Structures are given as C-alpha cells and as structure tokens.
Amino acid sequence: MNKERDIFRDSLREIFLGSVSGACGKLVEFPFDTIKVRLQYSQSLPHPLYNSTFHAIKKTYNNEGIIRGFYKGLKVPILGASMEVSCLFFSYNLSQDLLKLFNGKKLIDELKISEKLICGAFSGICTSFVLTPIELVKCKFQVENLKNLSNNNNTSSANISQITREILRNNGLKGLYKGHSATLLRECGGSMAWFGNYEFIINYFANGEKNFKPSILQLMIAGAGAGIGYHCTLFPADTIKSILQTNDSKNLTFTSVAKNIYKTKGILGFYSGIGITLFKSIPTSSMMFIAYEKMKELIE
C-alpha cells in the first residue's frame, strides 16, 4: 500500500511540476518555434519565401510585428506545453517506478542510464498522443498569416476555434492526428535523448554524491544539453511533421514528403530551421528543468 500511495502522490506531483515548467519553457520558446515552422513550411513551396533564418525573422517583424507575428496563437501552445510536459514527466517517472517494482527494487533505488533511456523513449511515445492534435492546430495557426500574405489576402485570419472546427468537420477526430507517425518517431527518439542527456550531465556533476542538489548553473548546462540532444536526434521527422500539418493536401504521407524533400532539397532540406531550433532549445530546456527541479525542492 505504501508503494502505491507513493506512486500516486509522486504522479500528481509530476503532473503539477510538468505543467508549470512546460508553460515557463513555452513562453521562452514560442517566438523561435514560429520562425522554425515558417521556415519548414516555406521550403516545401516551389518558391521558398525565405532565404535564411534572419530573412524570416526580418520579414515576420516587418509584415506582422512582434505580437501578431511571433506570438500569434500562443494560448494553445501554452496549454499544450503544460499538457505535454506534465505527460512527459509523469510517464517518465511512472515508467521508472514500474520498472523498479517489476525488477524487485525499491522506489528509492536508482536505475541505470540505459534503463532511463528506455523510460525516456516510453514517455515520448505516450506524449505523442497528447501532442499531435495540439501541434497540428498550432502549426496551422502559425502559418495562417503567412498564407494570407503570400496570396496577397488581406482578410482576417481564422482563429484557433475555427481551425479546430474545420479539421473536425472535414476529417473528424482522425484529422487531429495528421502527422502522428512523424510526431511519434520524433518524440520517441527525442525524449530518450532529452532525458538521457540531462541524466548523464547531472550524474557527471554529482560525481557519485547521494541526494545531490544541482545548482542553477548546473541545471542550465544539463537542460541545454537535453534540448540540443532532443532536437539533433530526429529533426528530419520534425520537418516532415510540420509540412504534413501545414499542408492542406490529403494525399501527402510521411514517405511522400520525405521523398519530395530529398528530391528537391537534398539532405539539407530535412534540416530547414535547425539553426534557430538549436538556438531556442538552450534557454527553453534550461528554464524548464530549473523550474521543475527548484519547485520540486520546495514541495518535497
């Protein structure tokens, strides 16, 4: 009974901590993510709208301003980030507890890094089912202005509710999972690298010390390493996902998009937006793990 109560209490804690840390990270990340998605959408067009990351930032600012250009559609990602990260930490820690119990270990025992990598992959798979509908609406919303501007359309953009209703009306619930295979692949490998890098760096700093409490600087370094690992692992899957979710064609598949990218842009086409993505991953992941670990210390 104690173990069950411990798992239940810890699970509620992870959901709360993940929600808050996810929201904090999204506030830092969102402007960079907007540019990344636009770069990925742009390179899927016959005539790309941007020739560099800086060009995309400049055009977005000149045409739409800061709030409407860089923070358009923030409400859904804030909610989505809270749900995503809470699910991520919840499933990661729950899978560790279940693995310990399955192997006859105590809940306070530590797992090997290799075992934590498996738990990270499992948490990514679980999170992909929450994340796909949220990212679909977010990506469509982020490029809505871009489509209007490229078509010289001055009408107001659709809002989040309208986009969601249109998806459901045209394709039902299944439509909300467009691009899920790419999201699942990205999250499985990316989450494994995210948690794996973080745990490895924290273990390095701990140097065998039990009950080690990392400093703010150490959390920043470990968080930055986690973010870089996440995005470098399966970024091509993220590019395919963004194109699938921002394109209105019903005939696109994971394979057809991958073939078209390689045929028209080569290997580098899979990495459109990687620069700004890596740039954003450092402060975002750092903020998330700082918020998570410091709040965890306060409530324990």
From TrEMBL:
<dbReference type="GO" id="GO:1990575">
    <property type="term" value="P:mitochondrial L-ornithine transmembrane transport"/>
</dbReference>
<dbReference type="GO" id="GO:0000064">
    <property type="term" value="F:L-ornithine transmembrane transporter activity"/>
</dbReference>
<keyword id="KW-0472">Membrane</keyword>
<keyword id="KW-0812">Transmembrane</keyword>
<protein>
    <recommendedName>
        <fullName>Mitochondrial carrier</fullName>
    </recommendedName>
</protein>
<dbReference type="InterPro" id="IPR023395">
    <property type="entry name" value="MCP_dom_sf"/>
</dbReference>
<feature type="repeat" description="Solcar">
    <location>
        <begin position="214"/>
        <end position="298"/>
    </location>
</feature>
<dbReference type="InterPro" id="IPR018108">
    <property type="entry name" value="MCP_transmembrane"/>
</dbReference>
<comment type="similarity">
    <text>Belongs to the mitochondrial carrier (TC 2.A.29) family.</text>
</comment>
<dbReference type="InterPro" id="IPR050567">
    <property type="entry name" value="Mitochondrial_Carrier"/>
</dbReference>
<keyword id="KW-0496">Mitochondrion</keyword>
<keyword id="KW-0813">Transport</keyword>
<feature type="repeat" description="Solcar">
    <location>
        <begin position="111"/>
        <end position="204"/>
    </location>
</feature>
<dbReference type="Pfam" id="PF00153">
    <property type="entry name" value="Mito_carr"/>
</dbReference>
<dbReference type="GO" id="GO:0031966">
    <property type="term" value="C:mitochondrial membrane"/>
</dbReference>
<keyword id="KW-1133">Transmembrane helix</keyword>
<keyword id="KW-0677">Repeat</keyword>
<feature type="repeat" description="Solcar">
    <location>
        <begin position="9"/>
        <end position="98"/>
    </location>
</feature>
